[in-house]
């Protein structure tokens, strides 16, 4: 406090302050020094706010900030590197959050091991290139260019005396690398499952705890088989294995199987005829207005209806007049000859 008094005394003789540091308020401000928050509950002057809004808001802000600074000067202060620093108390006002505070990410097995053993990885300042004595050039520490550099170095592999002469050492090295990559990917997936509290079997096949029904097991098999660059095109299938239902919508790359359109009208006619035959031969009944007629009854009614129509046509033919005959040879306009009248 002695430092604050000395500063105020020095400033009094140098310059006259335009406004006093003392500010009067009808209702005292609610000040939280921990968050440097000042809440003013005094009513606003509506007339002055409408007429001189900028001047009124500027003066109001200045008075409130002055009251906040006056409260800060009441705190214990100290000088640090030619600057006066005040020690703020713990905040009392609880700031609301729109979301829950995120939980800390769980450590992986390697991170836990490094923490126990005190291993520290220094990434800053590490060069991305290193000098290769064999190639006599700078190569990157990781990336596709490093893989190409390794291929250039391993262009020759020494054959062992007790090894198989028919075995390709390059393919053996490639398969070993793929196996290491698969092992690393499996470990990565296990770390993800551990962070999300997903139970995984230690050895063997999954149990009923992971797949409660056959549909889930079928979906897991389909996802595992289609998780390749070719979407499972070249993967072998189990006997009588089929894709899970509705999995094509979830798996990107899989397409639902659709029938190809007919190649010609004859093929289309054959497909339509087969569809009609399957409908007529099925055990389901074709309902009419009375909702009680089956296939056999429909055929009988159709046959009887056709016979009635034929009989009606015969009766109509007998009742109607005979068809007039046309004239033969040359036509004589002065004689009446039967036939159709021309217009």
UniProtKB/TrEMBL annotation:
Role noted for this protein: Involved in ribosomal large subunit assembly.
A Pfam family this chain is assigned to: RRS1
Gene Ontology CC terms, in alphabetical order: nucleolus; preribosome, large subunit precursor
Family that this chain belongs to: Belongs to the RRS1 family.
Chief localisation class: nucleus
Record-linked InterPro entries: Ribosom_reg
Organism: Temnothorax curvispinosus
Region of interest called Disordered, as start-end residue ranges on this chain: 160-186, 228-280, 299-343
Name used for this protein in its record: Ribosome biogenesis regulatory protein
Entry keyword annotation includes Magnesium: no
Ranges annotated as biased composition (Basic and acidic residues): 176-186, 238-248
Keywords carried by this UniProt record: Nucleus, Ribosome biogenesis
